[in-house]
Amino acid sequence: MKALIKLGGTLLDNRASRAALAAQIAALPGTGVQPVVVHGGGRQMTRFLASQGVESRFVNGLRVTSPEIIDAVLKVFAGSVNKELVAALVAAGAPAVGLSGIDGALAEARQLNPDLGAVGQIVRTNPEVLEALVGGGFIPVVACVAGDRDGNIYNVNADQMAVACAAGFRAAKLLFLTDVEGVRGADGETLAELTPEEARALIAAGVASGGMEAKLNSACAALDHGVGEVVIAAGAAPDVVRRLVNGEAMGTRLRRSGT
């Protein structure tokens, strides 16, 4: 079974949390699961920019990305965050390979909005890159950076990168591991299951907003592009990766209507 695991940057900012998740992911190939990992790193990016005296500015949740910031994107997302996670996977016994959407034209993007600078929207993926690595026994670890055919580099939302890679890789499961237990309903309780229609209703009612609205939109897009199911769950839960892959009821599971 193919699985795409998206790790939020908050989960990777702590060495113990990073090592625990790496150990869980490293065990998957031995159970017949072919994992691909996509990660964010927004907290690490904001901290790095602050250390350089650069203020982070956001529009609709997207970081305005000047040439100065795209240089930091490469240093942090494709550099320290990616390599720390790869190192943790290698320490756990997994032959992990760190890359970004630029490598092998894995994810091609175009500029989303000139006002946002070098923020990209993915328009095409080259899943053969992932297939070649997974077929060779490696675990790809993808940073949320993309390029285009003219050599431009783009900062890409990590959830969107996960959806694009999951769709191209034809993943049966897409796991969004984050710092919340799942999607909350109007009463504040975590919802066990959602259809895309129900997810969009939560957004329309203002119950799901901000980062969760973005996650639900990404989840719906993944289902629309053929991913079997999407789960949004707390990455800090014990043995979360194995439990989710095995179908245990955790977090919020999204499936297409009628499945």
Description:
By secondary structure, this protein is α/β, with parallel strands linked by helices. The chain folds into 2 domains: 1-170, Carbamate kinase (3-Layer(aba) Sandwich), CATH 3.40.1160.10; 172-259, Acetylglutamate kinase-like (Carbamate kinase). It has helices at 9-12, 15-26, 42-51, 67-91, 128-135, 158-169, 196-204, 210-224, 240-245, and strands at 2-7, 34-39, 58-59, 62-63, 96-100, 107-111, 120-125, 139-143, 145-147, 153-155, 173-178, 193-194, 229-234, 252-254. An 8-stranded mixed β-sheet has the order 5-8-2-1-11-13-14-12, with helices on both faces. Strands 3-4 form a two-stranded antiparallel ribbon. A hairpin with a 2-residue loop joins strand 3 (58-59) and strand 4 (62-63). Helix 3 packs across helix 4, helix 6 (158-169) runs parallel beside helix 8 (210-224) and helix 7 packs antiparallel against helix 8. The radius of gyration is 17 Å and the shape is globular.
Ordered list of secondary-structure elements with their pairings:
Blueprint lengths: L1 E6 L1 H4 L2 H12 L7 E6 L2 H10 L6 E2 L2 E2 L3 H25 L4 E5 L6 E5 L8 E6 L2 H8 L3 E5 L1 E3 L5 E3 L2 H12 L3 E6 L14 E2 L1 H9 L5 H15 L4 E6 L5 H6 L6 E3 L5
Parallel strand pairs: 1-2, 1-11, 2-8, 5-8, 11-13, 12-14
Antiparallel strand pairs: 3-4, 6-7, 9-10, 13-14
Helix pairs in contact: 2-4, 3-4, 6-8, 7-8
